[in-house]
Amino acid sequence: MRPTVAAPESVTWTVHLDRAMWVAGVRALMLQALHPVAMRGVWQRSDFRSDPTGRLLRTAHFVAVTTYGSPEEADRLGEHVRRVHRSLSFTDPDTGRRHRVDEHDLLVWVHCAEVTSYLETAVRAGVPLTPAEWDRYLDEQSTTATYVGLSRDDVPRSVADMRRYLASVRPVLRVTPEARRAVRFLLWPKVPDHLAALAPLKPLWFPVGALSYATLPDWARREYGVLPALPGAGAAATAGLRALRRGLDVVPERYYNLIFDEATVRSAEEAKERLLAAGYRVENGFRALRSRTRFRPPQVPAPRSPADA
């Protein structure tokens, strides 16, 4: 029996255990908001407006469980997600049409916005991945799509396929008033109750939100118009992202884990026990294990953007 959903040797572990994922997760929400119908669903049927941070933490939990949770744990979470989605519907005010949250095209868009954000942010942050590993990552993540009710072949499984998909959906994407308000929420979110003690540190969030926004495609930032467009913004965003990643990397794990919900931390601890039983050395944590199983020379040229959306 597999100890975890994805193997520690996978590209998924390399991407998802990197601390640049905080920026990637927020960027994914900002990118998802550009689909008008998907954004209306979030606006009407989720608690995003009252607890945007909570939604980000739930996304982090889903990513964690479908990365290093047990197969049984991931199956249970997937069934819960599908059950919740089946019960929700909403109305598009532009057309008057009633939509289900779990419509095929909406699920595909949410998946693609997430995985392209995770991969592109990781590459820009300096995670050393080759173009072949970009393809491997998207292929691995097609399994994650099955937990929300899609099949592996419903989603792009290579960079070339992902670029074609993004080009095909681009005419549908636009900034709605709800999307612009969502981005403003993400730049300055409400502090959840369980992190109330950290409220004085809230200004430290802004670099995460600003970098998430700055790494969006140029056309998206132009349409959002929430933050000013400055010359050299792309290079500055990449440099800032790498600096933030280096800063987060020096935070001890016991403090870093305070950000996550208890269920996410518990899932990680249980995964460590399973990996230890399977013969992996995890006494120094997941990230140390990953670095040993996926060693590379330190000097790897940064390739161009995998999504290039």
From TrEMBL:
Keywords: Oxidoreductase. This is Oxygenase MpaB family protein. The keyword Nucleotide-binding does not apply. Residues 13-244 form the ER-bound oxygenase mpaB/mpaB'/Rubber oxygenase catalytic domain. GO terms for molecular function: oxidoreductase activity. InterPro entries: MPAB/Lcp_cat_dom. Its EC number is 1.-.-.-. The lineage of its organism: Bacteria, Bacillati, Actinomycetota, Actinomycetes, Streptosporangiales. The keyword Amino-acid biosynthesis does not apply. It comes from Nocardiopsis lambiniae. It holds the Pfam family MPAB_Lcp_cat.
